Amino acid sequence: MKAGIIGCGSIAKYRHAPEYKANPYVDEIVFYDRNPERAEALAMLFEGSFVTTVEELLQDTTIDMISDCTSNESHHVFSTKALLSGKHVLCEKPISLSLEQAAIILDAEKQSGKKLMIDHNQRFTKAHQKAKELIKRKELGDVLTFKTSFGHKGPEHWGINSTNSTWFFKKDRSSIGVAGDLGIHKIDLIHYLLEDEIEMVSAFQGSLDKVDEQGNPIEVCDNIVCTLKTKQGRIGTASFSWTYYGEEDNSTILYCQKGIIKIYHRHDCPIEVITENGERNRYQLESIQTNDNQTNSGVIDAFVECVRNDEEPQVTGQDAWLSLRVILKMVEAAESNQVITI
């Protein structure tokens, strides 16, 4: 099969392109970026080809699937066009900046009959899949409460230009800051692990430390901390940050009736289970992918398989819509100082 990538920034360079290149069913990658030099550079790096207009990519009938790696404000434009051009689409998270934009993509999916998958990659780690298995088997009873975190030193260290001019800091392009960049991953993860949905939120947010290229505080939040309640009555906390300067934190702790499941809480052990009598069981699985430690996320392989076998994607557009809805209400709760029911 043949894949196309729209947007040739870091997420394309370090994740999508190398994973397509490594997949045995993908023969070629075609790149497009509004900056043609970026597309040409990735085409050379991954032995693919590039086009200078997005129309060339969309009109190429030999391309089976497209990764939408554009910035957040463009997802509803390019993913929609790609679907309606007869391509299967893997869209980066968040699916869009609003529920209305997300609905445009979901309508295009329905109209086209093509696959739409969203890159919520935390579902694909072996540790999170093992944790879901433990929860499902109720080895520790039901999950009662939880806390989850996702933070690192900020997107200006990750982006293609590695400067404070990054689009992540712009209100019109990223809209919801760290909540849409990192927070939405963990909301999707909680939904996935618990097979439950968050229905109430409260939060505090702020631009605590990040500045733009002029040295002014950024237009979006670099930290948000919230409390959450699910439909099944579980309660928890979540912290998302671009100011964890010492090291990345991507941990989740689940407190159950008969013990605790700690995920990515220790560097030497992806999962630690502590029973109510103090027994500790450690599962030596792979380390989680980080900005500084790029490993195969499994997302591209899963996307290719769902296309090959005509299966439902492991992260659907509806899944992504539900997570976006929570994130938007989280930011609204922080801005209004209210507890909000979703």
Automatic annotation (TrEMBL):
Cross-referenced InterPro entries: Gfo/Idh/MocA-like_OxRdtase_N (IPR000683), Gfo/Idh/MocA_Oxidoreductases (IPR051450), GFO_IDH_MocA-like_dom (IPR055170), NAD(P)-bd_dom_sf (IPR036291)
Domain GFO/IDH/MocA-like oxidoreductase, chain residue ranges per copy: 128-261
One protein family per Pfam: GFO_IDH_MocA_C3
Domain of life of the native organism: Bacteria
Occurrences of domain Gfo/Idh/MocA-like oxidoreductase N-terminal (ranges): 2-120
PANTHER family listed in its UniProt record: BILIVERDIN REDUCTASE A
The protein's name in its UniProt record: Gfo/Idh/MocA family oxidoreductase
Organism: Ornithinibacillus xuwenensis
